[in-house]
Structure formats: C-alpha cells, structure tokens
C-alpha cells in the first residue's frame, strides 16, 4: 500500500504517486532509476528553454522538445502492453499511453512553472493549461496535439452516445487519487492479459485501498484468485459481488461459478 496520506498524495507530482504505486505492485520496479532519468529530462528542458520567458512559447517549446526532439509518442501497435504503464519501460522505449506520457509531461511542466494540470476525461487522460488570463487549452498527451472543444465533444459522443454533450465537470482538474486508480485499472488489465496474476492481484488490492468495498473490483479480484487456484477465496469475492449487485447480468453466471468453486478441494498456498 502507499506510505503517505491522501493529503500528501494530492500535494505531490502525479508521477511521484505513480512511482510509489508501481513499486508497491512490482517490488523489483527501479523507482530510483526512473527518478534519476526524470531529473535529467527536467534539467535538459530547463537548459533548452531557459531564455524563453513567454509562458505560451515555453509550453510550445516543451511540446516540441518532448514529442519531436526526444521522440516520445503514443504506442499505437501495442497500446495495451504493460510496457506502456510502467514508467521505466516508457522512458526506455519513449512510448506509452496518455496517462504515462502525460504524467512525465506534467512533471516537466511543473519544473518549468507552466500551469498544466491533469484531467480524467471520460475517454482518456488529457492535460489542461489554465493560463493566467483565464484562457484554457487542452493537450492530448498521446501525441502532444492541442485539443479543441469540438474534438472533445466528438470523443464524448463516440463514447457515451450521440445525445450526450460536454459538461464543465468533464474538464475539471482531477485529483491524483482518481488518476492513479484509473492507471491501476489499466495496469491490472495489462498484467491479466500477460498472465502476471500475482502482480495483478497487488493492483486489485491497491485499487480497493482507494475504493474500499467496490463490488466490481472485488469481482475482478475474485477472477484473479481463481487464476491463482485460490478457489474458495475467489468464491467469497464472487458471493460479495452477487450480494451487492444482484441485478447485474454477470450475477447469474457467477452463481454457477461459485457452486463449481465450492466443489473444488481447498488449496493451501
């Protein structure tokens, strides 16, 4: 579990929370190496942009540096790979997904005193720039392109249906805990796909530290326990989900699964 309070989590850079989170999920994760690489990037960015006093031009300079000169970009070919959620792999490959690339970009923007924050937009993680004159801009961290409200509205309609419109709450600055919870969910899915079940279980337990008692997360944890051949513990998680969400379409199928699991012999680990 994370070793700091909720208040401390919100005060620190998103990337620092991600490092602590990842180290808790994957004990061999080289968090110290990642911190060194991040500091090197921040120093290089400061050197490259030290003479640019205009904040708008400094932001454009950081985008150019990060995406063009350094070559960070979104991984279109293996979007759901765990390499795109672990920051050591993102830094090595210079490939990632919106949340991992965005967390690194946020870290650099903070070093350059740029007013960039995170937004947990319904379709993906994006960045918001709150300029001092009240103007707002939005950046897609997957490719560094600015996003118009028209584009964001189209994304939302594609995600939720044609009758949904963009609300101001969709663009609110997100808390680190919310972003890290979504990050953990993506990490867990990648680890399950790659059959790293022990790491996926630690992911699930950490999500539950942010969202205690979440029935859908407990259902997912039950599936992981089942893959780890912890049948009776899996059955307990499934039973909790059935009790909490009896109308869910999955509930009837899980009842059959629970019966089968209870018939299996107890495995001692």
TrEMBL record:
Family matches, as InterPro entries: SirB1_N (IPR032698), TPR-like_helical_dom_sf (IPR011990)
Pfam families: TPR_9, Transglut_core2
Transmembrane feature ranges: none
Residues covered by the Protein SirB1 N-terminal domain: 34-184
PANTHER family: F-BOX ONLY PROTEIN 21 (PTHR31350:SF21), SI:DKEY-261L7.2 (PTHR31350)
Family stated for the protein in its record: Belongs to the UPF0162 family.
Name of this protein: Protein SirB1
Organism: Photobacterium marinum
